Amino acid sequence: MALTGLAFGQVGGVSSISKSILTFEAPGAGKGAGQGTSSQSINDDGEITGNYKDSASVVHGFVRHKDGTFESFEAPGASKKATLGTFPESINDKGDVIGYYFTDPGGVRHGFVRYKDGTIVRFDPPGSQGTVAKHNNDDGLFTGNYVSYDKAHAFVARRDNSFTTFDPPGSANTAPQGINARGEITGYYADDANSLRGFIRYADGAYAKFDVPGANAIEGKGTLPMDINSNGDVVGYYHTRPKDGMRAFIRHKDGTFTKFDPPGSITDDAPHVDDEGYIVRPTAAALSINESGDIAGYYGDTAGVVHGFIRRRDGTYTTFEAPGAARHGNLGTFSESINNRGDITGFYYTGANAVLRGFVLPHIADLSQAPAKAPVKKP
Fold this sequence. Notes:
Blueprint lengths: L21 E3 L11 E7 L5 E6 L5 E6 L5 E4 L12 E6 L5 E7 L4 E7 L5 E4 L7 E6 L5 E7 L2 E7 L5 E4 L6 E7 L5 E6 L5 E6 L5 E4 L12 E6 L5 E6 L6 E6 L5 E4 L23 E6 L5 E6 L5 E6 L4 E5 L12 E6 L5 E6 L6 E6 L10 E2 L2 E2 L2
Antiparallel strand pairs: 1-28, 2-3, 3-4, 4-5, 6-7, 7-8, 8-9, 10-11, 11-12, 12-13, 14-15, 15-16, 16-17, 18-19, 19-20, 20-21, 21-30, 22-23, 23-24, 24-25, 25-29, 26-27, 27-28
């Protein structure tokens, strides 16, 4: 919870749309298990940012341009130790990238902005013991959090490096995840009992705090918003009872909720195990929403295989997996970001040796490829 760069635990018939997926590897990406290319964000020009681990498992940033060419980069002073380095998180339509990187000694995190011309500027609020920049918009605003005296505080920063810190009332730790074109920020915070609760911070500094109805808000679990569009629609996931699963949700601008499960995901409380005998829990996470209300994310099936999905605003779905994606062990295809054209990027684990590769799924105009409907849950 301390920093938004921390990863969460990471599923089916799949449509022929998967044949349209373009896969790629960043130059210099390693070929060992857990190494490779991880795409995180795509802008409306089709530029993608993310990171790759080289053969020594050092992490580097990249921008993949729409013509398929790459620019690799490291933040100045970034660590060269295994699993450390430079971690881009978001790219806006101007081509500016934000993220974080580790420095030596001690692996301290610092935020950064990389402008389109390649200039990289470090960002740390005064007193920060670790900073993560998480998401930016086209006006140059970006949000994230920083640690001070073992507590995570949120910030919204501007292109000139000025910033405002904030915490929702009642927050013991704050983790912003998304910012829209209006400067509205969503994310989650931990209360004094370490239950996770959602929030929206409006541009005027006012807050809306919320829990998905039925969320299992025990210690370390609850409601986790991931993104917000300019209409004020928020998407994310929440923890459920009794199987400790993850389910996707939309919080509409009027404060109502729609809970949903992509076709092929686990919707019952029956016990499920994968082919290695491990328990499989319900998993569905909505991670990104565009201005049209289209949502990208991933879900797990009853065999523990992870698949990507698109949920359109009319409630139809497309599910897919990258060619050659692993089909075991809670691995598979993870959709991370959708742009306003409907292009999706993310990463997948290969079936042979669990190497990561990036993918982009261009917008498919022919919706007849996957007009599936899935059950919708109302509060």
